[in-house]
Amino acid sequence: MAYYWFKAFHLVGIVVWFAGLFYLVRLFIYHVEANEQPEPAQTILKNQYQLMERRLYNIITTPGMVVTVAMAIGLISTEPEVLKQGWLHIKLLFVVLLIGYHHYCSRLMKQLAKNECRWSSQQLRALNEAPTVFLVAIVLLAVFKNNLPTDITAWGILAMIVAMAATIQLYAKKRRLDKEKVMAQAQE
Q1: Does some domain include residue 165?
Q2: Quick one: pLDDT at residue 48?
Q3: CA triplet 39, 41, 42: central angle to 5 degrees?
Q4: pTM for the whole thing?
Q5: Is the separation of the CB atoms in 88 and 82 below 8 Å?
Q6: How crowded is the C-beta side of 102, counted as CA atoms within 13 Å?
Q7: Domain for residue 105, yes or no?
Q8: Is 91 annotated as a binding residue?
Q9: Which long-range contacts (CB under 8 A, 24 or more apart) does 124-128 make?
Q10: Torsion sign (Cα): 66, 71, 77, 79
């Protein structure tokens, strides 16, 4: 019965953790874009984003990570033989990378608070896609285990990354064209 409790709360932790990671970097994007606003709007927006980032990171995202990892340890303790399976080693590698991403977000948050962040909003949009790649890889490994078709999966993930990059570029172009259109209308 413990296995099911661990699994249920492991899934809850995953949902909370990823929700926080997806939204956190989105806030970073808005935070960086606040630099384009005139004062006092710029300061007001940056202060608000900084508050939202801290609360999201400390109250939602980090507890979600802790619950996820704690429940994973519980799951493994109920079935320790799973540690001998190759798929779990790869999944754990992705989880370690995701934990690194989580902590890197903390670093970016501190840089933003000090106005020292060198990331552009477009670069942050690309960074914001990393958890999606991790999520897909982790879920596929958890579902397929040792039966994961690695060649199809690798090509699928690569295609997903290319599609994300193309979408980010197209969105940047659209934003630039929209800005040029507004400026042209203002000059008329």
Answers
A1: no
A2: 97
A3: 70
A4: 0.88
A5: yes
A6: 25
A7: yes
A8: yes
A9: 124/25, 124/28, 124/29, 124/32, 125/29, 125/168, 125/171, 125/172, 126/164, 126/165, 126/168, 127/25, 128/22, 128/25, 128/26, 128/28, 128/29
A10: negative
Measured at the CA of 98, the angle between CA 76 and CA 171, to 5 degrees, comes to 145
Q: What is the pLDDT of residues 141-174, one digit of tens each?
A: 999 998 888 889 899 999 999 999 999 899 888 9
Percent of the chain predicted with pLDDT > 70: 100
Domain count, the chain: 1
Domain with 26 in it = 2-148
Task: Give the mean model confidence (pLDDT) for residues 44-52.
Answer: 97
Within a domain: residue 56? yes
Contact between residue 146 and residue 188 where contact means Cβ atoms under 8 Å apart: no
Asked if residue 103 belongs to a known ligand binding site, the reply is no
pLDDT per residue as tens digits for the range 120-136: 999 999 999 999 999 99
Residue 182 within any structural domain of the chain: no
